[in-house]
Design brief:
The protein has 321 residues and is of the alpha/beta class. The protein has two domains: 120 residues, 2-Layer Sandwich (Nucleotidyltransferase, domain 5); 109 residues, no CATH class. The chain contains 14 helices and seven strands. The two termini are 43 Å apart. The N terminus is likely disordered.
């Protein structure tokens, strides 16, 4: 059998389908239509990326009775297209790496035509797209994670300022941003406050009261107005970030109120608290029917080790997380 005959032998899964090559300011669409006699017609058309352009794309697909489209999950550029086509067409969002692993592509074929060709034969594996409310949770939990990472980064900068100025509070206090540490930071930020040993002793709390002398020695350095300005600036940012994390957490908790039972069950798992339970729920959703079995779910989560073996030798089988 020749290569052409072999290609023809592949069954047609979607006689009418469309592949979208999505960019920031334009979308290239390839519509494939297979008639009853088996003849194939393809039409390539370009659209802009504004909402009215995407509505025109939807109207064009609807007019041609196209029930399904495929596009790559490139950055966030697929999101506007998904917003317009959702609830109107079946959308297959494809990981670009999966497309590269499909053999047979020619260098001169357009991305949209190649996507449409693969979709026609049912050779594309769609990525998991949760419901809109879950997507909102996911965006908020990921935003909270980013803000938390920024907060940690700015706290590290405070440590750096202290080391630069020969301030060794971090060597005496285990948590620089605990009660004792914050008391000392407030005094260092205020140029009108004295830093005598008796005053520093008043800053100590709990077990650190017995280390008042060490605390006093730890702040004897070269702390100048320049360092004070840096410290005050960093502490203002840290305060804002801390407030934002609280606001985000309140919003996430409010949106997930109706699913408190699921969160409660997740919290019973050792090592999973409220925040971790919220993250899990926002990533996988409350309905796991998307995953046919536990093995499929473990593979999607990156917890399924590879089983790569060749010529009797087993290669690396590490997980992706």
């Amino acid at each position: 059998m020749t290569q052409q005959q072999n290609t023809t032998a592949i069954s047609i899964m979607h006689p009418v389908c469309c592949g979208l090559d999505v960019h920031k300011m334009k979308i290239s669409a390839c519509l494939i239509t297979i008639d009853c006699d088996g003849s194939e017609q393809s039409e390539i058309k370009e659209f802009g990326a504004f909402t009215d352009d995407l509505i025109s794309l939807r109207a064009w697909l609807t007019t041609n009775k196209c029930p399904i489209i495929a596009m790559e999950s490139t950055g966030i550029y697929w999101r506007p297209v998904h917003n317009v086509l959702e609830h109107h067409l079946e959308i297959i969002l494809v990981n670009a790496r999966h497309i590269k692993n499909v053999p047979g592509r020619k260098t001169d074929i357009s991305d949209s035509k190649w996507l449409a060709s693969l979709l026609k034969h049912g050779l594309l594996r769609g990525s998991f797209i949760p419901e809109k409310d879950i997507r909102h949770w996911r965006e908020l939990t990921r935003q909270r994670r980013k803000v938390t990472e920024s907060l940690s980064d700015y706290k590290k900068r405070v440590h750096k300022v202290f080391e630069t100025a020969n301030i060794k509070i971090g060597s005496v206090v285990s948590d620089l941003f605990g009660k004792t540490g914050m008391n000392l930071i407030e005094r260092l930020c205020d140029e009108n406050v004295s830093l005598v040993e008796a005053d520093i002793a008043e800053c100590a709390c709990g077990r650190l009261k017995s280390k008042s002398t060490e605390l006093y020695r730890s702040i004897q350095g070269f702390f100048e107005d320049h360092h004070r300005f840096q410290l005050c600036s960093l502490m203002r940012i840290i305060s804002i970030l801390g407030s934002e994390i609280g606001i985000l957490s309140d919003r996430i908790g409010g949106l997930m109120t109706s699913h408190h039972e699921i969160i409660g069950r997740l919290e019973k798992v050792p090592g999973i608290g409220t925040r971790s339970a919220q993250i899990i729920l926002s990533e996988v959703g409350y309905d796991l029917k998307t995953f046919p079995n536990t093995a499929s779910f473990a593979s999607w989560a990156g917890l399924c080790p590879g089983n790569n073996e060749s010529a009797g030798k087993r290669k690396s089988g590490k997980t992706s997380v």
